[in-house]
Design goal:
Layout: H1 24-35, E1 38-43, E2 46-51, H2 54-62, E3 68-70, H3 72-80, H4 91-102, H5 107-130, E4 135-136, H6 137-154, H7 167-183, H8 196-225, H9 235-245, H10 252-283, H11 285-295, H12 311-323, E5 330-334, E6 338-340, E7 343-345, E8 350-353, H13 375-378, H14 401-418, E9 419-423, E10 432-435, E11 437-440, E12 444-449
Parallel strand pairs: 2-8
Antiparallel strand pairs: 1-2, 3-5, 4-12, 5-8, 6-7, 9-12, 10-11
The chain binds protoporphyrin IX containing FE.
GO molecular function: heme binding; iron ion binding; monooxygenase activity; oxidoreductase activity, acting on paired donors, with incorporation or reduction of molecular oxygen
Cofactor: heme
Keywords: Heme, Iron, Metal-binding, Monooxygenase, Oxidoreductase
Length: 450
Amino acid sequence: MNTTPTPKQNLIFGNALQFKPKDFHLALRKWADELGGVYKFRIITKDMYVVSSPAEIEYLLTNRPKKFSRSSKLSSILNEVSLNGLFTAEGSSWAKQKRLMTSSFSNKQLTTYFPKLELITNRLISHIKMNTTRLDMRNLFTRYTIDVTSSFSFGDDVNTIENSDKMSVKHLNFIFEVIGERVTKPFPTWRYIKTKKDRKLIESVSYIKNYVTEYIDKANKRMESTAVGSAPTNILEAMILAGRQEDHPFTNEELFGNVITLLLAGEDTTANVLSWCFFYLSQNPAILKELRESLAHLGKVSSMESLEDLPFLESVINETMRLKPVAPFLILENLEDTELSGHKISKNSTIVANISYNHFNSTYFESPYSFKPSRWLEQKNQNTDKVFIPFGSGARLCIGKKLSLLEMKLAIVEIVRSFDFKLDCAADEICEEFNFTLNPNKLPMIFSPL
Ligand code: HEM
């Protein structure tokens, strides 16, 4: 049996004082460079194993749900704020939810949804047209993804693009901000002492619960009164229908947990990839030109199919997600004693699958720190699918992958065809921060219509 290497540790704090929460992903990467494919570090009393080698990561992800689950610490933080949906569910409850929800994200459902996505994207373009001088694009992309996810999930046209101070959005953003802080805290202080922020969180969760419950009631009524076989108009209705057809209806708690899970999972992830993409395009005029040229043959985009065969656009998105993996690692737990590369890991340990580690490995990606979308065209037949899994892999693969790719493609196509743009600050002022997802600290941009 191998002794698992560890970074140098402080006797009391372990490695807790050696990184800032916002740089957690960088610490994991640096230690993997020094210590190899499997190592462990310690936060006060808690050991965490980190797995960075592709074969072991594949083993972890494909042996779910039987041998590995999501981290119970992460799940309890999310469940405390009623986010008990597909992301945190385990065992038979997860299997039921995944099976029933998968149909809600089908191509058929996305095709039905496309006209609404088009409407929201047109609003995004009009908003940029009217505010070309200085736009905080990180904020605007977040509003775009909130609008898309809300209308897709429960049919609400919140329109935060044109109206940024909706109460529901303020409460949601506050909930997400606190989750981000709690996930990176070494100790769950909020369970023992409630600060003003913790009390405000309870109010926000209650507001959102009432708000979403109205939509659940509406969707229940609509699905009861509409004819058998009529198409659901949003995920909430699709979940209700799928549950009824299989005789395993979702409970109201499950419906609520899933609606806000989708809002959380669908908002920052997609908004951050879009933000990073426009950061890179603004810094690489030749690549922007090539992208525009690759889209020149496209007429009006009015269906999902028109966005299907656009290899250069897909390469730009892949390259963005390679260099800025918005979900850089996954935190898991082993349900039984495990051995990984000769390292014995006892049951219920925390295991971090460092899924983005090999994005920066020159064995797989030549000049790994350069933004070079064309590598994805050249590498088409090479084996990068084991080391490039930005949406995860195995049974717990991201359910929103197709929706987010569709959303990102449409936004990029329409912005790139309508505007020239540049960063409104020095490029080195833009830094990455880990706040549950990997976001840029800001993204001020100036636009000019083409
Ligand atoms: C660029 C955008 C996105 C990225 C990079 C991303 C990434 C991920 C990753 C890495 C996972 C964990 C997979 C695993 O454990 O193997 C995940 C799970 C999940 N994602 Fe996404 N995601 C994105 C967008 C979305 C959207 C738009 C939605 C829904 C509206 C969504 C909903 C979910 C849900 C519900 C899960 C849990 C699936 C399960 O546990 O079975 N995601 N996502």
